[in-house]
């Protein structure tokens, strides 16, 4: 949109807009603006700008408000309330003896979240490894979603296998029944099933509620992992949320079966509330899959009750601790699958990684352009690479970094140099030069036209008489100019000129050099149709030369519009001449201060700078000279352990992501580091003696 075009030009603003958009999405989906803002911060940012905090709250609050107002307007709700209201008791929501059960839910949810992420990635990798299947699915893009949809719908068909897993309930209806505070079973017997409304879907005459919940969890688990792999915009948060609620409900029903009379405390009996366990399980499993703690706040806003805040926080923290130690989050896994640039966490311990420097991981073959380069060099650089930005150096000898230029700016410069507008300007200038040359030739010819004028010039004779004297116009043919003016532009056709369009040259300028007055009559061979009676002596006679206007093919010299009449060969020759010209960077937007690192910067500092500023690359300089570039790819390889220095291998914090073929040996240390090892006695690194060319450039 043109209204927000300036916002998206700044890369730092893109992250802020992404965080606000994520907050709006979660706020609308769950009517949870506070949880949505916190969730967006955890998912989209490593270092969050506080100035964007109120913007996220502003957008999420109004989006959630409008979402709930529309529900009231459509008469789905009587007023603005929580999306899934619960009615847990507030005086004694849970007993202290139930905390171990909540902790078990958190630990089990951590393992379940890691398993869900692993299963999702395993399915995608399996499909990609099957080359024949992958090529077939690439041609038939709708076939894979159709097959997955057919499989899921067949297994959940209510009259079929779906009757054992509450298949006739929608996702919303399933969540409403799972959060119900009434106990479904007593001693786990199906005949004593206590159900009202949608809860009847969980009842089956042949199996009890525990079998139904187990089948629901298992089937929904792998079907959700499979469904999230289809190339269709869908969310994985809500299915995982429902699965977690079902797991918590299973634990709650088990606790209700083990303690049918409730837990005795000070002579008072408090029955088990399975709905509270469902809330804890939903928050724990969704937090384990996404590696977020804000799911606890989302659950509180979703249910409208904060009575189980302590069990929810304990379960979410334990689930995150287990899941983060085993697998990355679902979003990081998708980034890894799609091979997008990302920056993994540096991790704790393993101080050997601090010995790695930027010089050990940087790329030395840097693509750059010089300040005095020509358009041909610019053209070759753009063809050989696909970098978004290119470094601008002073010269090849000095390599002093002056700034960076975006690829779009360089393409615009090249387009302006070889574009049609510049070619038309060249044609216009060429035509103007031709016109000036023709005028000079005409002036020289008017001074020296003694014999040539009598042979080649045709005259127009006009008499000035009184207004009542009859005159007859003589029909004329197109007359030739006094001098044959050669022209670069070919004139295949000439426009016949009328007497009113003829330009005359006075007899005083030309006739004095032509004493022979019979010459023009013989050369013209024009017979006058006027009778002798009508001829009268004229008072004044004016003889002039008819000179046709200069005719240019398909364009006008004095006008702005110029038509391109150059042949393909002429255009190719003209482009070759244009490519040899020096580039003019006057109208180009140059970043005079790109992000730079020195070659001895540690890996820890580099990781902090990249994370804090959201960089994707940085130039490596030595006393202002460009010597390399480091990007997210090189930084990721160094963190994951594919770079070794001094025989010490860095252990990656994300061991599950490291490929077996990416490890390297000690020989991969750079030559610059070996040179540094030779000078261990020196406290500071010293630069080599600059060459004569460097001294001249400086």
- Proportion of strand residues: 5-15%
Low-pLDDT regions: 187-193, 453-459, 466-539, 543-560, 643-676, 678-698
User: What is the average of the pLDDT values?
Assistant: 73
Say what oligomer this is: single chain
What is the CATH T-level topology of one domain? Clc chloride channel
CATH class of one domain: Mainly Alpha
Architecture of one domain, according to CATH? Orthogonal Bundle
* Largest sheet entry: 4 strands, mixed
Class based on secondary structure composition and strand pairing: alpha+beta
Report the C-alpha radius of gyration, rounded.
Answer: 43 Å
N-to-C span: 47 Å
Count of DSSP H/I helices: 26
Shape: elongated
Number-wise, the strands total 13
Strand order of the largest sheet: 3-4-5-8
Q: Percent helix among the residues?
A: 40-55%
The CATH superfamily of one domain is known as Clc chloride channel
GO molecular function: voltage-gated chloride channel activity
Pfam families: Voltage_CLC
Subcellular location: Membrane
Protein name: Chloride channel protein
């Amino acid at each position: 949109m043109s209204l927000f075009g300036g916002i998206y030009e700044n890369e730092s603003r893109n992250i802020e807009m992404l965080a606000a958009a994520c907050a709006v999405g979660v706020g609308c989906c769950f009517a949870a603006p506070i949880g949505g803002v916190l969730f967006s911060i955890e998912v989209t940012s490593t270092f969050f700008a506080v100035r964007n905090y109120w913007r996220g709250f502003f957008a999420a609050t109004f989006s959630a408000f409008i979402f709930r107002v529309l529900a009231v307007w459509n008469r789905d709700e009587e007023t603005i309330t929580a999306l899934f209201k619960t009615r847990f008791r507030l005086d004694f929501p849970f007993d202290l003896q139930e905390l171990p059960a909540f902790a078990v839910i958190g630990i089990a949810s951590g393992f379940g979240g890691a398993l869900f992420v692993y299963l999702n990635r395993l399915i995608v990798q399996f499909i990609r490894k099957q080359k024949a299947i992958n090529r077939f699915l690439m041609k038939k893009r709708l076939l894979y979603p159709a097959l997955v949809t057919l499989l899921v719908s067949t297994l959940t068909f209510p009259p079929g296998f779906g009757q054992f897993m509450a298949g006739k309930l929608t996702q919303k209806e399933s969540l409403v029944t799972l959060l119900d505070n009434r106990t479904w079973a007593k001693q786990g017997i199906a005949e004593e099933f206590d159900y009202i409304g949608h809860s009847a879907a969980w009842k089956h005459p042949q199996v009890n509620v525990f079998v139904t919940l187990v089948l629901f969890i298992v089937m929904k688990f792998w079907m959700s992992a499979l469904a999230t792999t289809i190339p269709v915009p869908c969310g994985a948060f809500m299915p995982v949320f429902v699965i977690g609620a079902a797991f918590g409900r299973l634990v709650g029903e088990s606790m209700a079966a083990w303690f049918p009379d409730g837990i005795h405390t000070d002579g008072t009996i408090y029955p088990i509330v399975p709905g509270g366990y469902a809330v804890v399980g939903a928050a724990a499993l969704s937090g384990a899959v996404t590696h977020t703690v804000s799911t606890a706040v989302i659950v509180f806003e979703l249910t409208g009750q904060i009575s189980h805040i302590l069990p929810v926080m304990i379960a979410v923290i334990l689930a995150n601790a287990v899941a983060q130690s085993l697998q990355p989050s679902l979003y990081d896994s998708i980034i890894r699958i799609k091979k997008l640039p990302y920056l993994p966490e540096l991790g704790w311990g393993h101080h050997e990684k601090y010995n790695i420097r930027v010089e050990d991981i940087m790329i030395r073959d840097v693509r750059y352009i010089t300040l005095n380069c020509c358009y041909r060099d610019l053209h070759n650089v753009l063809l050989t690479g696909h970098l978004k930005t290119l470094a601008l150096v002073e010269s090849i000898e000095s390599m002093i970094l002056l700034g960076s230029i975006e690829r779009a700016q360089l393409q615009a410069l090249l387009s302006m140099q070889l574009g049609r507008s510049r070619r038309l300007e060249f044609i216009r200038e060429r035509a103007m030069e031709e016109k000036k040359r023709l005028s000079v030739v005409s002036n020289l010819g008017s001074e020296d036209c003694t014999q040539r004028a009598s042979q080649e010039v045709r005259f127009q004779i006009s008499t000035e008489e009184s207004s009542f004297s009859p005159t007859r116009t003589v029909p004329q043919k197109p007359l030739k100019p006094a001098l044959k003016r050669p022209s670069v532009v070919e004139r295949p056709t000439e426009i016949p000129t009328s007497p009113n369009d003829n330009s005359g040259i006075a007899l005083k300028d030309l006739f004095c050099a032509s004493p022979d007055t019979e010459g023009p009559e013989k050369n013209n061979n024009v017979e006058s149709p006027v009778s002798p009676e009508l001829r009268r002596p004229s008072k004044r006679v004016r003889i002039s030369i008819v000179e046709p206007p200069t005719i240019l093919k398909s364009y006008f010299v004095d006008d702005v519009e110029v038509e391109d009449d150059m042949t393909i060969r002429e255009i190719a020759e003209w482009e070759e001449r244009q490519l040899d010209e020096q580039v003019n960077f006057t109208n180009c937007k140059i970043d005079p201060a790109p992000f730079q690192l020195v070659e001895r910067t540690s890996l820890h500092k580099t990781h902090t700078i990249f994370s804090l500023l959201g960089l994707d690359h940085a130039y490596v300089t030595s006393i202002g000279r460009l010597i390399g570039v480091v990007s997210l790819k090189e930084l990721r390889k160094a963190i994951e352990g594919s770079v070794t220095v001094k025989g010490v291998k860095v252990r990656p914090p994300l061991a599950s992501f490291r490929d077996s073929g990416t490890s390297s040996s000690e020989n991969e240390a750079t030559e610059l580091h070996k040179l540094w090892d030779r000078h261990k006695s020196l406290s500071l690194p010293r630069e080599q003696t600059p060459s004569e060319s460097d001294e001249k450039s400086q």
